[in-house]
Structure formats: C-alpha cells, structure tokens
C-alpha cells in the first residue's frame, strides 16, 4: 500500500511542478508557489511518518526522499 501511495505522491508532485513551470502569468505563479510550499510540507510530513513506520533500509528511504 505504501508503494502505491508513494508513487501517487511522486506523480502528484511532478504534475504540480509542471503546471507551475508552464505558467507565464506572474499573478498565477505567486499563489501557486505559496500553495505548493504549504501543500508539500504537509505531504512530506505524512510520507515521512509512513516511511519511518515501514522500517525500510537506508537506501530505500534515501531513494524515496530523493524522488519526493
């Protein structure tokens, strides 16, 4: 279950980053950056807690953190 959830978070983060990068209007970019930072902070805390509970080895944890 954690793998599917983690993959969903990675894909979600990539889509948000692409939408931010594709935006040309500064009125759109500023709110997107604020929302992205706030959203990713809580997403990262949730994913970090799940990774710690799953007790993966260091390499697997490092790969997951890198892709997030």
TrEMBL record:
Pfam families: Zip. It is a multi-pass membrane protein. One of its GO terms (cellular component) is plasma membrane. The keyword rRNA-binding does not apply. Its main location: membrane. It is found in: Membrane. InterPro entries: ZIP (IPR003689). Keywords: Membrane, Signal, Transmembrane, Transmembrane helix. The keyword Membrane applies. GO terms for molecular function: zinc ion transmembrane transporter activity. Residues 1-21 form the signal peptide. PANTHER family: ZINC TRANSPORTER 10-RELATED, ZINC/IRON TRANSPORTER. This is Uncharacterized protein.
């Amino acid at each position: 279950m954690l793998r599917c959830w983690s993959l969903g978070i990675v894909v979600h983060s990539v889509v948000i980053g692409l939408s931010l990068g594709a935006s040309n209007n500064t009125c759109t970019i500023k709110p997107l950056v604020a929302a992205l930072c706030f959203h990713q902070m809580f997403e990262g805390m949730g994913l970090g807690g799940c990774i710690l509970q799953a007790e993966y080895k260091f390499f697997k944890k490092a790969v997951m953190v890198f892709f997030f």
